[in-house]
Amino acid sequence: MSSLLFCTRHLANSEEQMLLAEDGPDLIHSLDPRRCCNINAGGSANYKCGEEKNECLATYESLDYLPSHSEAYKKWLQEKAYRTDWDRWLLMGLIGIGVGMLGFLTHQIIDCLIKLKWKLVENYLQNGNFHMTWICILGSGLAMILVSSGFVVFFCPAGVPCGLPEVTGFLNGASIQNVFNIKTFLGTFVSCVLAVASGLFCGPEGPMIHLGAIIGCGLSQLKSDTLGIHLPFFTRFQNSADKRNFITAGAGAGIASVFRAPVGGLLFTLEEVASFWDVRLAWQTFFCCLMATFTTDLLSSSLDGFVYRGHFGFFEAEKGILFWVKNLLDLSILAFIPTIFLGILGGLLGALFVSLNIKINKLRMRFFSSISKLFLRKTSKLLESMMILVCTVTITVYLPYFFPCTPVRTLRTFQLKNNTEITKEFKREIAEYTCTPGTPWIGPDGVKYYNQTFNQAAALLAENGRRGIAYLFKRGTHEEFGYTSLFIAVAFYFLLSCWTAGSAVASGLVIPMLYTGALYGRIVGLILVSIFGVQTNGYGAWIDPGLFAAIGAASFVSGVSRLTVSLTVIMIEITNDVQSLLLVMVAVMVAKMIGDWFNLPLYSSLLKLKCIPYLDSEPFAGQRKKWLNLELFSARDVMEPCVRVLHLKEKIVSLAQLLANTSHGGFPVVYKSEPDQAEVFLGTITSSSQPLCHQSEKCNLGRH
């Protein structure tokens, strides 16, 4: 069934009926994953799995989410007393608290490492010594990447970074090994914080989804084969269905914690991750996301850089809302025109990003697979990550050298609202780089002014992604950034983030996608300002580059991931800009429709590239280079004529030969009550089951 993943073509009803009226399709071979795993989505993306990928596909087995209705199961149901789900809710709360603490720890470590890294070169920057700045930044970054990539390549069991595609495939029913291993957890966490702090154009969002899923798996199962721990608590949840639900909740809590967006985390799991959903799981996932966001906000309220700052339990809007937009704007219907244009641009650039990233990953996989020695292959992956960092640091350090210091041109109307804090605000946020510090003075009108200057390229490239996005989203900063700095930043961020995604470090793409979209969105806003000028009246206040930066960010994320509902809610939660809700919805919908014309979403493309079995909600089967809807067939069309069956008692040699010569995940068990009667189907047994074997060299299958 795994090759159903690769069938996305649609035919007219007449063509389907005509094909069915002929010889009859051979669904057995069309659904065989060993035959091929080719897809053609939108006529532009072709992925062909080689022999090694076919062998990899054959190793996957499906998870049994529904229990077999055996006599033992029915007897257990009869003896089971009615009980409330208090323990399930308790576990959901514990998972949310654990993910929230991990999210807080991740952000704190990343911020501390970034501050420490740039503090080391503060004197060199003030003296204009770019060479020593580059050496120090590159040296500290290479040390981080060496550990980050080393943990993934040499410590994690899979040897490659796992993330959202693996979690999605597992929740869809594919049994993927070592995805929720304790070593995978430690390797992903260390690699994530060091990769983001090193200066690579990446974020912690994707790894946080994976880490949240691992916490959901670990706390619900309370056992670890690696550590040899098997605790006798919550044993009723040690089954595939409950394990799946807790992993789903943990993944949603990861998004909720990293973005402080509980509703967005819930909707993200529904729209992108989960394949099995019900109302009860929605409530429990919502509670888990709530606890994750609350825990992260509670710890962030009083701790900064692991130092207690006081005000425990006091939630400041500036800390709780990731990219807080302080000044909402009145909108006009004319704002929908550039919004639609941004949606089209986001869909086109998003499709280009997906296509380019898949090509890079295919080239990367082909190159590494050509290296026969395992140690050299792993070392090559590590060296590639270091090479990406060298390019990134060189650009972020030397490129601002070619940009002069420009004054801060924040509109006076926005300064008047908080003129006592304006100096502190810009000194904290704008990258001064080599610019001389400014001096404040009180004007004749009693307003406090500040002649601070900053480097545009440094503010966009040298800072981390979260702070750069905050610069771009800021309202009332019509002329803070010019065309040159924005175009250069969007070009380098697009290419380097596309190259970084898929390398041997645990990294996320959401922050780079938001940043790239915010950059070209601000360019569109700056074009409007150049045409119509800076509008200070109420009817023209919507012509603000900060507004279109937020819309552009949403459009590019949608163009790459094809998310709609969850993305819209997340954008509102991370900006608090309810006023632009309709604009974000329009941009997201247009970007998704445009992107779907060209190729599949990025995470679906990665699923196919990695040949992870995934069954679409509307699967299609291939027949004579055509794709047919499976609803046109019955169960007999997918049945083999010669079925390998097992009897209640089998010899060990027969079982060994059967498992060695077949790749099935399970076999039917039959029984003859009398020699002259027909065989009766009793049930199925999976290939991973352990039948009772005796010294008579026969195994009893009827006791399982």
Automatic annotation (TrEMBL):
Gene Ontology molecular functions: chloride transmembrane transporter activity
Lineage: superkingdom: Eukaryota
Membrane-protein topology: Multi-pass membrane protein
One GO location term (cellular component): membrane
Pfam family, one: Voltage_CLC
Annotated compartments: Membrane
Segments crossing the lipid bilayer: 89-114, 135-160, 180-202, 246-269, 281-299, 331-356, 382-403, 481-501, 513-534, 546-569, 581-600
Keywords of this entry: CBS domain, Membrane, Repeat, Transmembrane, Transmembrane helix
Gene3D superfamilies, alphabetized: Clc chloride channel
Cited InterPro entries: Cl-channel/antiporter, Cl-channel_core, ClC
Protein name according to UniProt: Chloride channel protein B-like isoform X7
